[in-house]
Amino acid sequence: MSLTVTYKDNKFSLVGKDGRTYDVSAAQQQQWQQTLNGLATQHGLKDAQDLLSKGTVAVPEAGDSQWRMATEAGIAPRDINASVVALNEHIGNPDLIQTYHEGDLKPDFIMLPVPPEEEPILGSDAPAGMPAPTPGNTKPADFAQMLAKEPDEKKRAGLIDGYFKAAASDPKTAVNDLKKAVNDLLQLDFGKDSKGNDINPSVRQEIIRTYVEGKKPGEQLQALKDLAEVNWKDDVAVDTEILAVAKELGFSRDQIGTINEGVKE
Questions:
Q1: pTM
Q2: Residue 149: which pLDDT band, with cuts at 50, 70 and 90?
Q3: Who's near 43: CB < 8 A, 6+ residues apart?
């Protein structure tokens, strides 16, 4: 996962997705100022500090690509070519960026059209400026905790929607990656809210509902069938919510097929 360039107390530093800060050497400070000043000028800005105040600049780590860095920052897949690749014309080949190593004087700076001082992730303890949660930067169990801490159902649904969109960001693996993200979440226990109420039914229904919404009726039915065929750790509980969403959409138990016999209607 990428490291974000920050400027504080008159010096540059790097911040990881875990909030850890990495110092930058004196030689890097001087060269980075010069390089970022040049990028700022290309985009009609005053200097490096102005550039960092208007958007996010990051350096790639192993396995990163412009596409991955953009999706981890919460940018919609359909917007990546127009808003990220186009913004980074200084990178000769958008599919080839160099991994940052400690001490690099001229790393590949990737600019992302994301405000550097965003609000913390809803329902999480993440510091300001951290990107929206995705399968690439947030473990399923950690994401489950975020959902459990968010009392507003609409905001929870928004987090789930963003998480799933990021999971399906690569067209080549979108179907399988999205299924995995859904399955990973439905296996989890979301616990109770601040009043001691079990939120598993509502959160699981939100996950299932978000997964199938926007699909054609036939595709919705097949998606629900696929979920029902999974042998969940708590099969009765998950199948109960699959059936509840199915009924909302006008499907019968017989149409879904493999609902656990222990599920009561």
A1: 0.54
A2: confident
A3: 51
